[in-house]
Design goal:
alpha/beta, six-stranded mixed sheet, 12 strands
Length: 289
């Protein structure tokens, strides 16, 4: 911007000195110069992140990382908003829990997931651009047995604007699989791992900025059943708490935009259980269950 301003100023001065009257071209050149001055001032002064994004994107992840939502993606989002798939019910069904695994021997298990950016309803009349696994928030609950050999295949839907990956905290290895599953829109990658540690673990997108991807809905749970099995129960439910950070405050209707400053401040606009604000409870049990 500085080099451009210097060159443009010299050229404009030369043109004005030679011109008998100010032509249209001179006014256009002056307008371009003013734009360069404003842009030059803007890029050299620090502003709060909520003002600086997306034209002056800064990564708010640790270390010297590149922006995770560059300017081209911001413009693509503005022009492609209406082309995103509209999901009628973004919230994962808490009753959709894979059955406990009662087999005696480990097996080879194949799991296919699709990272997809969609538009879903947070609450009545309030929509958000969710980044999902399999078009829901949280992603599907996964279940394997201790000792299983598991292959995870992750596809990034071609309609996505960003790269995605998956980090499963049940995986012993670099980034829980994140380092080998970073997929661009339209790509598919897979990796194999052995379920060594029984327990219930989170999985999530670990593409920088990690918290930006997670606060758009890209997370879920994976259960590694112990080889001896779990105690019998009448009901199992799948519930994950999430946070949405949106511009405009609580209850603003329409497509709510992501608010990075609220994320940095740790002040969510909505605290959700299974992706959205429920109008009626979907978990039911009988007395004594």
């Amino acid at each position: 911007a500085i080099i451009f301003i210097i060159v443009k100023s010299g050229f404009l001065s030369w043109v004005v000195k030679r011109a008998k009257k100010l032509s249209k071209q001179v006014w256009v050149a002056a307008a371009v110069l003013c734009g360069a001055l404003i842009f030059g001032f803007y890029v050299t002064h620090p502003y709060p992140l909520h003002f600086a994004m997306p034209p002056m994107m800064h990564s708010h992840a640790p270390g010297n990382l590149p922006p995770s939502i560059p300017v081209p993606s911001a413009f693509k989002f503005l022009f492609q908003t209406n082309s995103f798939e509209k999901v009628d019910d973004i919230g994962a069904d808490p009753n959709n829990v894979p059955a406990p695994i009662d087999r005696q021997n480990p097996e080879m298990v194949n799991i296919d997931l699709v990272a997809k950016e969609v538009v879903g309803e947070v609450a009545g009349g309030i929509e958000f651009n969710y980044w999902t696994y399999n078009g829901q928030a949280p992603g599907p609950m996964l279940r394997v047995r201790e000792g299983d050999d598991v292959t995870i295949s992750l596809t990034n839907d071609k309609s996505s604007l960003h790269e995605h990956n998956i980090d499963l905290h049940a995986v012993t290895g670099p980034g829980g699989g994140a380092s080998v599953t970073k997929v661009k829109p339209g790509e598919t990658k897979k990796f194999q791992w052995k379920a060594l540690n029984p327990g219930l673990y989170i999985y999530h997108c670990a593409t920088a900025n990690v918290s930006t991807h997670n606060s758009h809905g890209q997370y879920g749970l994976i259960m590694v059943d112990p080889k001896e099995g779990l105690p019998k129960v009448d009901k199992e439910f799948y519930v994950v708490q999430g946070e949405l950070y949106t511009e405009g405050g609580l209850g603003k209707k329409g497509l709510a935009l992501f608010d990075p400053q609220a994320l940095l401040d740790g002040i969510p606009t909505y605290v959700t259980f299974n992706g959205k604000i429920e109008t009626a409870p979907r978990m039911k049990a009988k007395v004594g269950d």
